[in-house]
Write a structure and sequence with these properties.
The chain is mostly helical. It is 57% helix and 6% strand. β2 and β3 form a beta hairpin.
């Protein structure tokens, strides 16, 4: 004999399953798992459905419900619940239209009993005439056709309305985001994409929430049931971490983005980001923008298409830094370098005629020397603080005050080092150069500065002219987009008027 066993997750107030303290503290229902026999109602087991150390008696979830739309109770609504009636209505209307068209094309009716047609069991072929015996002599009086009408225009309009309502609800309307994508404004594209995917985005978020809850339940089960160690060697890690991986400190969540539910939306957002980044490349990382576009398109081996991004600066010896300065490349100082050696090498290089007649290279090297001076001052102050226990105690107890004092000490040390470098440079120039030669060199430097100023003015004018041309092109492009949108709206209004006129004409005909 078979038995049907029911497992029910319910809230009960069972005093015999509580301690004296719990019984006095509360008188409410808590979660239990009860197993009963369906036929007899016999209780087979009762288990608590909360953790023993949980003072709030929170339910342990075992089930996940993936909802299309929220329902009136626990269960949600599916797509069939929402548009099932519209689908049945559309199907019924289509069948009625087909039946009406079939009956009006192939009519049926009544004929007189005495009317005889030769080979009446075979259909009449086009262009064929058959012999007929008409008792009354008039064939027209021997037949009576049933009054079948043509397919109803009202029923046809109802079919279109039902189908359109179902499409709007299911969010499968034509968003028209694939046409003229390059010339459409960014805000227009995003607005169309958001409007057309509003319902599907909400559904995708509910599915994402359901999957996240399922992963949470699986992680809890793994943490409770997995062994304490891995059955195989783990490269670069300990084996005694298998169950600890799911002890609640790490959340297991889906890697998908709940706000992006389709590849079209992902590609559109990536293209929008690239368009914004291209409008001002000085403030954006174009390499990263292009990489995201390729990722959205699902391109494999992106590294073989894109050039590698620029590498961060690395420490170099003073000679290489001098060579980079002649190429007008920015230099970077690092804390682990020998600052005295770098400062001495750059200062000596700045005394050469190649640097003296090139103010830009001179300024670049001077800026780099200032970076070394700052790092050297910071390092010396750090060594001084490490030797002072009071400063170390202040760093632990009063970090803000310590930071202010540290900045003051660095500033003083920087001023001292800068003064020493300026005095050394003045003494060297006074000892090596004749006054007449110095005046001649200053005249040459002024001419070089004047040439540099003129070159910068030419570049500035060219850049301003390019900016004006870009602004004019952007303005004209915006006007074209606005004119195109206005023309599209006028076309839509004209189509609506034409459809209304056709409907009125059909109504008059009927």
């Amino acid at each position: 004999m078979g038995y049907s066993v029911l497992e029910m997750h319910v809230d009960l107030d069972l005093e015999e399953y509580l301690g004296d303290a719990d019984r006095e503290a509360r008188n409410v229902k808590v979660p239990y798992i009860v197993t009963v026999v369906e036929n007899t109602g016999q209780v087979l087991s009762i288990y608590r459905n909360y953790r023993a150390d949980d003072s709030k008696y929170r339910r342990i979830e075992y089930f996940v419900h993936y909802k299309f739309l929220p329902g009136l109770g626990f269960y949600g609504f599916g797509l069939t619940h929402m548009i099932g009636g519209l689908s049945r209505t559309a199907t019924e209307a289509l069948r009625q239209l087909l039946d009406a068209g079939t009956l009006s094309t192939l009519p049926a009716g009544f004929k007189s009993r005495g009317m005889r047609v030769r080979d009446d069991d075979q259909p009449i072929q086009p262009g064929e005439f058959r012999d007929v015996d008409a008792p009354g002599g008039n064939i027209k009086d021997q037949f009576q056709l049933l009054p079948f009408k043509e397919p109803s225009t009202t029923l046809f309009n109802l079919l279109g309305f039902v189908v359109q309502a179902g499409q709007k609800f299911a969010a499968i309307t034509n968003m028209d985001t694939g046409n003229d994508m390059q010339n459409r404004a960014v805000g227009t594209t995003i607005a169309l994409l958001e409007r057309g995917s509003r319902v599907m985005s909400a559904i995708h978020k509910r599915c994402y929430y359901g999957l996240r809850m399922e992963f949470k339940i699986l992680a809890r089960i793994f943490g409770e049931s997995l062994p304490q160690e891995y059955p195989y060697d783990v490269y670069g890690g300990e084996r005694l971490i298998k169950s600890v991986d799911f002890d609640g400190r790490v959340d297991v969540i889906p890697t998908a983005d709940p706000n992006i539910h389709s590849m079209t939306q992902k590609v559109t957002l990536a293209q929008t980001q690239l368009q914004i980044a291209s409008s001002n490349p000085q403030m954006h990382n174009l390499h990263e923008a292009y990489r995201r576009v390729y990722e959205a398109l699902g391109t494999k081996q992106i590294e073989s298409i894109l050039k590698p991004p620029p590498q961060p600066p690395k420490p170099m010896d003073p000679a290489k830094e001098n060579a980079e300065a002649l190429k007008m490349q920015l230099l970077t100082a690092f804390a682990q370098q020998d600052h005295d050696a770098h400062i001495a090498a750059h200062s000596a290089f700045m005394q050469t005629r190649m640097v003296q007649i090139n103010p830009q290279v001179y300024a670049l090297l001077q800026s780099h020397i200032s970076e070394h001076v700052s790092l050297k001052a910071t390092a010396e102050v750090g060594v001084e603080i490490q030797a002072n226990p009071q400063m170390q105690q202040m760093a632990e107890q009063q970090p803000q005050q310590f930071e202010a004092i540290f900045d003051q000490m660095v500033a003083k040390r920087t001023a001292e080092l800068t003064t020493q470098l300026a005095q050394a440079e003045a003494q060297q120039q006074g000892a090596q150069q004749d006054p007449l030669v110095r005046l001649k060199q200053q005249e040459i430097d002024l001419r070089a500065l004047d040439l540099q100023r003129k070159a910068e003015e030419v570049r500035f004018k060219e850049s301003k002219q390019d900016e004006r041309q870009e602004a004019d092109l952007a303005f004209k492009l915006t006007q074209l987009e606005q004119n195109k949108e206005a023309a599209g709206e006028r076309m839509d209004v004209a189509r609506e008027k034409l459809d209304i006129a056709r409907e009125k004409a059909n109504v008059k005909k009927n």
